[in-house]
Design brief:
- The complex is a heterodimer of chains A (about 425) and B (about 180).
- By secondary structure, chain A is an alpha+beta fold.
- Helix content of chain A is about 50%, strand content about 10%.
- In chain A, a hairpin with a 2-residue loop joins strand 3 (about 45-50) and strand 4.
- In chain A, helix 4 runs antiparallel to helix 5 and helix 5 (about 115-145) runs antiparallel to helix 6.
- In chain B, about 15% of the residues lie in helices and about 20% in strands.
- In chain B, about 35% of the residues are buried.
- Classes of the chains: A alpha+beta (about 425), B alpha/beta (about 180).
- The interface between A and B is large, with 47 and 42 residues.
Chain lengths: ~425, ~180
Amino acid sequence: MSRSADAIAEAFEAAGHGAYVESFDRDERMIINMGPVHPATHGVLRLVLELDAETVVSCRPVIGYLHTGMEKECEDQNWRSAITIVTRMDYLAPFFNEHGYSIAVEELLGIEVPKRGQYIRVLISELNRISSHLVWFGTQGLDMGAISAMFYGFREREVILDFYEMVTGLRMNNNYVIPGGVWEDLPDGWRPVVENILGLLPGRIQEYEDLLSENPVFLERTKGIGTITADECGTLSTTGPIARAAGIDWDLRRDMPYGAYPDFEFDVPTATEGDVYARYTVRMEEMRQSVRILGQVVDGMPDGDYKNMDPKLTPPSRSELNRSMEAVIHHFKLVTQGYTVPAGEAYAAVESPRGELGVYAVSDGGTAPYRVHVRDPSFVNLQALPVMVRDGLVADLIASIASVDPVLGGVDR
Amino acid sequence: MTQWSGSDRGQTLSAGEWTDTARILQDEGWLLVDLCGLDRLGLSDEAVETRFEVVVQLIHHDKRERTTVHVGASGEPPTVPSVTELWAGADHMEREAFDLMGIHFEGHPNLTRILMPDEWEGHPLRKDYGVGKVPVEFIPQPLLQIDSAGQSPNAEGAHQAIDHLGQGSPDGGEIS
């Protein structure tokens, strides 16, 4: 039987989930299906691998198992409630989805966000960067055989998630950052909670590094594994820690600052090796830098409005409803219809834990988005995976997937 | 502080001009950030003739600039040249635009559906493809019953002795 690798790959496609190892005579290569239900693919990622013994000759990501048409669903919501859709895309970094979308809508509306609102956004975003990196840390460690990394990472993440719950009422899919600011002001007593987290984290991050950074097994499995060069990152549109670990010194927070980021001092960690270990060091240092930014946010948190109080945009407060007819009318219009956004288009990007998260929003002048497109970093970064894993071993593929840190909710949207 | 203003529409090109422009941009060091399809069916913009557009976002790290390019996709099916040879990262993005918007990319090495199932008909993000207009079909299944472990579910033997909660009566008779 002589079938081409492509023909067999197609047959696997047609067979759907029932794929298994099938060998054939040409070069004794093997097409093997990995996923979509596999603990090391971090979700419903499916990879079709062409193997020569244990060496990966080619790797093709097959995605779409989690596609629910979120971009289409946004067109059926008003501008405010589309937040509930975008927050569910990259579910480990929900605030970044909301933040990117909100900036795009603010550009269309031409409105400003009050200083306090911007600081709260930075506060919650940087905490989110840490909580997202902690999941990466846990899974990277777990996939490399260090199961305690998983426990430690999730232990600290829990503390941060408790803070989200305190501020937004929810642990995930928070629906908190809205066009014009944030939905609610920080609750009383937020400061000691954040200070507690900030006091806790540096020591804990050091503890993680003590566990892994010089662990011979971890070094053996990550150094020189899954390499990608800066040029490859450029042509593949790869962003975020993967690109920075390959030597591209680029961070939107510093190089194209948005919101309150110009107010803060921080470094952008980079490396040149472009391997799994370099991505590990970059992400670890990013967590430290986030702690540094958070300290400045807590110290400098200004007073004032936390969202744009334009009555055409923000529903009036309860007390106002009791005495002003105009407030009741505004409230009625905003709740039943939502606000209109001038016709136009905007692209806004934020630096999410995985890279550039861009939102392209088009308005036809109505109360609902005409088109919302989210450039999810996981979706784009996944294209770098075949480059990282070629000519490597299957076991190293696992290390590479973990270091790409894809979130399939964002990939498939 | 470099703040990119979102209201800038950028260049508008026809499909024929896109390849050459993309080559020039790539030579200048622009990197592809995003590429997506846009259906202008409901937008009243006299200046734009084609219904479909491909919207490309580019970034230049040294200049710290962004730019947007709109490429009109004319014809049936709407077609624009692929830029995967210039920026390999266009691969997934063009497949997504093909899958969800039905825009064809000439020269793409593997233009197949990426998010929707392969056998799907239509392109969901088009404006004439409404939300909820596609009925979800539930194929009626007969109530299956097994009497003993190891017996395969038997559609023939499925009898009325199962009420709507799926519970059978001990004697196998009709439930009143």
